[in-house]
Amino acid sequence: MIQPEESDVSRLTDSEFCVLIESEHNVQVTEGEGVEGSPAILSTEVHKTIVDENCQNEHQLIVCFTPTLEALSVECGLIFVNSEEFSWVRTSSARRENYQKPDGFSTPAHLYTDTGEDTRSALDSWKNRYPAPYRYGRGIWEIRDYYVIWEFKVKLLPADRGKAYNYLLHLCRGDKVNIYQCILCDRDKFYIIKATNGVIISIVLWKWTQAGSRKAVLDTLSFRNNWLKLLIECSSALRARNVTVARYLGSGGFGRVFCARSTNGTEMALKIVLTVSLDSAQKQQLAISEFEKLTLLTTEKVPHVISVVHDSLTLCEVDGNVIGVAYFLRDVGTPVTRENCQDREFCQRLFYSLMSIHLKNHHHGDARVQNAIICEDKILWIDFLSTLVNFSSPNLKRKDIQTLIKSIFSNAEEVERQIALDVQLALYGTNDDVAEQTAVINRIINIHFA
Known about the structure:
alpha+beta; Transferase(Phosphotransferase), domain 1; 3 domains; Phosphorylase Kinase, domain 1
């Protein structure tokens, strides 16, 4: 199927892209069929008020519709966030300035990057006429399957469908499971567009005043991909403990991690692992094995390892079927980056933290810098999915060191070559001699910062 980043396609106008996609994906615009007596989103009177505002641009139109979008979103357990000034939909370009800027999106609360208040004073008078919670921010790319995209135009043209297709095909590329949705609007009508696995699968046209339009949008906003079903199920269980999801922290392995906050302000990390897939049994077992590994490390008080909350392992069910695994981690931190490791002292501390795990006769299994966090100035290792529960060896410990080298140093091959010639590396992990293992690490640091 055609993808927006393919070289020939990228030169097309939005109008040409619209024609191409509707032909290539064999999809046509259909008109929504409302049921008599089923409510419309807007009454004729309210809609006339908005039309009579004589909006000169889409920014003003979005303000007029924000109270409506917020009310619809809240009814479905979501909120509306304005993102018209912020690039966040990734394209084939690595340059952030080439990322796309949808006008807004509906999202679970807190699961976006808050950018604060809007500074465009020209819209203040419009906001005064249409009071609502005005939020501004970026979507988070890694959890984009949680969002429903909104895009506004003063008057829709076929080229605008092409732009919406472009958003959706970037959002869903490489995702064979989830359905992505965009609601493309003007002052009179809107399209509900759906896509999955790089294919536009439906386009339905509605009017704001049409019977059944309210149900159509509520059904769209109420649709839950599996990841969101899992998060909602976990959130329900958390409320029973007086704990709520506060923000997204990151993704690791095949899990997602969120900050969960109790009513007394205590924060923990909530890790959820989706197990609905062809290899669901394997994923479920891996998640349980990681929990068991972390429980063992916590019990043995192995230093520099994130602590698991005992007895927090939960199998999450929806309609009687297990869709994922969740458990709590005691520590909430920030990711270690390669930039952190440009500091010699920090880099040395990172290697020493890994060594401290080895000295307790354990190993990590995937000791990349991405699997370490900073928590209250302490370095902790996370994501033990690749670790055998009760087994370690000198070779596995040496592999940890080599993995960390590769993930940090741009001259990793040169460092490894020199370290491999050093008899100390062959001795690393063979005993509990701290001096010998420290000597290897110090040599790595000296070579890198020479």
